[in-house]
Amino acid sequence: MGLLSSLVFPTLFLFLSSLPFSPILINGHQCHGTESNALLHFKDSFVISKFASYDLYSYPKTVSWVPSIDCCSWDGIECDELTGHVIGIDLSSSQLYGSIEANSSLFSLVHLQSLDLSDNDFNHSQIPSMIGNFSQLRYLNLSQASETTFSGEIPPDISRLSNLLSLDLSSYTLSYPPDDAIINQLQLSIPTLRSLAQNTIRLEKLHLSCVNISASVPDVLTKLTYLQSLNLFNCELYGEFPVGIFHLPNLITLSLARNPNLNGFIPDFQSRALISKLVISQTNFRGRIPTSIGNLTSLNWLSIAYCNFQGSIPSSFGKLNQLVHLNLRSSGFTIGTFPLFFVNLTKLSYLDLERCNLTGEIPSWITNLTSLDYWSFYNNTLHGEIPHSLVRMDNLANLYLGFNRLQGKLELGLFLKMRRLSVLDLSYNKLSLLNEEASFNASLPPLKVLYLEQCNLTGAIPTWIMNLTGLQRLGLQENHLQGEIPHSLFTLENLETLSISGNSLEGTFDCDMFLKLKMLNYLSLSNNKLSLLPGKGSSNGTLPPLEVAGGISPLICNLKSLVLLDLAYNNLSGTIPSCLGSSSQSLQIMMLQGNKLVGHLPQTYVMGSALKMIDVTDNNLQGELPRELVNCRGLEFLDVSYNKINDSFPYWLGSLPELKVIALRFNEFHGAIHCPSTCTFPKLHILDLSHNLFSGNLTPETIKNWKSMTTSNISQLLYKDWTIYFGGKNWFTHIFYSFTMSNKGVVTDYEQIQQTFYLMVAIDISGNRISGEIPSVLGDLKSLVLLNLSNNLFIGDIPSSFRKLSNLQALDLSLNSLSGKIPQELAELTFLEFFNVSFNNLSGPIPENNQFSTFEGNCFAGNQGLCGTPLKKKCGDSSGSSPTGVDSDHDSESFIEFDWKIILIGYGGGVVAGLALGYAFGSDVLLWLKRIFK
Ligand SMILES: *[C@@H]1O[C@H](CO)[C@@H](O)[C@H](O)[C@H]1NC(C)=O
Ligand SMILES: *[C@@H]1O[C@H](CO)[C@@H](O)[C@H](O)[C@H]1NC(C)=O
Ligand SMILES: *[C@@H]1O[C@H](CO)[C@@H](O)[C@H](O)[C@H]1NC(C)=O
Ligand SMILES: *[C@@H]1O[C@H](CO)[C@@H](O)[C@H](O)[C@H]1NC(C)=O
Ligand SMILES: *[C@@H]1O[C@H](CO)[C@@H](O)[C@H](O)[C@H]1NC(C)=O
Ligand SMILES: *[C@@H]1O[C@H](CO)[C@@H](O)[C@H](O)[C@H]1NC(C)=O
Q1: Distance separating alpha carbons of residues 672 and 689, to the nearest angstrom
Q2: What residue's CA is closest to ligand 4, atom 11?
Q3: What is the number of domains present in the chain?
Q4: For residue 709, what is the domain's CATH number?
Q5: Which of 163, 339, 467, 747 has a 20 to 30 Å separation from 819 between CA atoms?
Q6: Does the residue 704 lie in any domain?
Q7: What is the pTM for the complete model shown?
């Protein structure tokens, strides 16, 4: 790094005062032997690895460090011209790998004024406290391109560097997805930060991004009057940000982004303010933006995305005519109709107004902002037509208009005239895009991303798409596209994500064509009419079905980069190739539900499989669950519901450390639900065993293994690692998992209860043959939101321990043989929305409280001895009306005497019982049952 010119004077002074003994007279410009040796030692403490630096232009500077050459001419070394001492070391991006030892020879170079070791890999070593010995140091850069470099506490000694002008200890993580929690490896204590600010009063630049400070910002920073650039990105700051920092007279750049717990507000500004870059995104800054922001006439970069501001944008923004970058995404503002002042911001190249409550139409004058390169109005309520003058915006490369209410018929060819267009997102409006193939001319824009979801596209997939050779992401889902997938699509060899789900595509799903798309990681073709070629010999009828069925070609396993495969809801028949679990190390999500697949689930799953989610519901799969599934150590979601899988309770899945959802609904699972103490299901959220043939008792020992459900704070179980991003979407937020509860005469999708899938904790073992008493330890599963034990053979009391299930929203115990009273303690369950104990042998009064008064009579029907509201039978009134709570008629009463449960279960437990549950509680229930069973 260059020696700052301000250093010349003191150095000269030193020279004059020590003239007779100065080494320059003896050695000329030669470096001192001790310093040369120290540097060589330092060099030898590292190996060169090109993976140690991220900069593409990195190279090993220390290769030029050889004893035969004067160290002052080594690459990265700077000596004082007069004294010959080494005063500058620049080893940035030098591919160094190794640790810096506490007693490293580096620290003997006490004349250092500038030290730059950025972008190397110091293998998690600590910053040695000897760094404080460099009393001359003005410039120190230990920033790192990943979190692997330095770690641990920044030594307090750093505050002894009282001559510092510039300090950079940032790390920049390259992790993806961007919202992943970054683990900050370097920690800075508040006492150290305080004394640093007190001692280094001439500091001009302080960059600490991704350093874990975990405190509020100390006021003493407002004393750094020379400060020009302060970067506290992602420092885990909280508390109130000292407003004085905005008023530092020399401040030019301020970044506080990604400190979600940092409170603050934007103060009034004087006209003298020099600030040119202000980045406050992802903080808890709030309040209004003062009109005086218009005084920041040098401002060219303003990012206040994801904050909690209020009110509208002051029109003084129109004075900020130097703005190049403006990001107001989800900042809390309500912008309303497009303010005219934007027309003044002629230098704008980046404008993000996503989720800004923009209303009205897109004004045609907006196209006067011809410098715009990035333009997002995503997710507002804009309506009206898209102005055709858009085509004039020559520099526009990224255009996001998705999720608005834009309407009208629009010729797609319009956009194809924009010569720089790289991203076009028109998804989810009310547009009708027309595709007049004739209007497409030979020179297409360099589109990389094309999202035309729900754009009322009809006919075949537009042919010009096949000429977009640079296309990486194509989203055409939920249109009315027909015909087959054209083979020319497979010439788009840069394609990474492809979604054409929700159309009416026909023809065969041709695996080997997809193999040409070597970069493909996301393939979603669900909800079409795709089929597979029938297997050989399907017509002769002599081979067993598994052999004739054909199925998904094993070639699919050659798509080595595939992460998500979604072929759900098509006409796919035949088998699932066994390689799907074993060959691909990248496949994380496999969605094959709603087809006609037969045979077994793939039997081979290798260790190291990346599978997180397997959904094969609603097929005709049979056989056992493959035990090899335990090799999928990352499996989080397994849903095999609605098949014919015949197996015992898969307790062995309990060793999977991430498994959260097991759904076996409507299969042929049988035997006891038991669990040896070794299977702990450490993260289980949802266990759906309903409508199988499970029998035996539910033992306390088994329930005690489900420890993950015993926490009362559900948010502790959040799916933090459930983040798979494609096209800016988190795939896992799209999961739809519904439970059905029998209540109020209809099957109720549990989805309607106010609980997101993320927070859902549920056990559903309804529709089996479980007998014995309900173990009272179930009451220890405090995070349960839903518990469905209905349609089994449970006897005995309802455990009063259920009062501890404080998160419970739905409890269904209907269609059992429970007796005794409904525990009064259940009235303590304030979140309970659904409650059903109908058709048991319960007696006594129904608990009285506000919650219970909302449950209708049907929920208590079919219990001879129950009394109290909402039943007609009053307590202590033995001559009351029908105990069933349904219309009293002779037929129904005589039916109740009949053992209806035996009928239901005797009928097979499976689908019929399910149907019975669905309708069993309508007022016409008894008539209906009679029709079926008599
Ligand atoms: C700053 O802006 C406010 C409001 O726009 C204005 O009244 C004030 O005069 C400006 N201050 C200076 C010092 O120019
Ligand atoms: C636009 O800029 C002009 C000249 O800088 C200024 O006079 C005018 O007030 C600005 N308009 C708005 C709406 O701020
Ligand atoms: C958007 O505007 C509507 C009505 O003006 C308001 O109810 C809503 O809270 C606003 N949303 C946001 C995010 O500001
Ligand atoms: C937009 O530009 C056109 C032509 O350059 C000009 O006539 C018009 O006044 C501008 N619109 C606004 C609102 O400034
Ligand atoms: C749109 O914004 C709303 C809040 O304003 C948010 O809830 C919703 O998820 C957003 N939708 C998309 C597709 O980003
Ligand atoms: C979709 O397109 C068809 C045919 O172009 C048209 O008849 C229909 O009105 C459009 N639907 C909407 C919602 O615009």
Answers
A1: 12
A2: 365
A3: 1
A4: 3.80.10.10
A5: 747
A6: yes
A7: 0.81
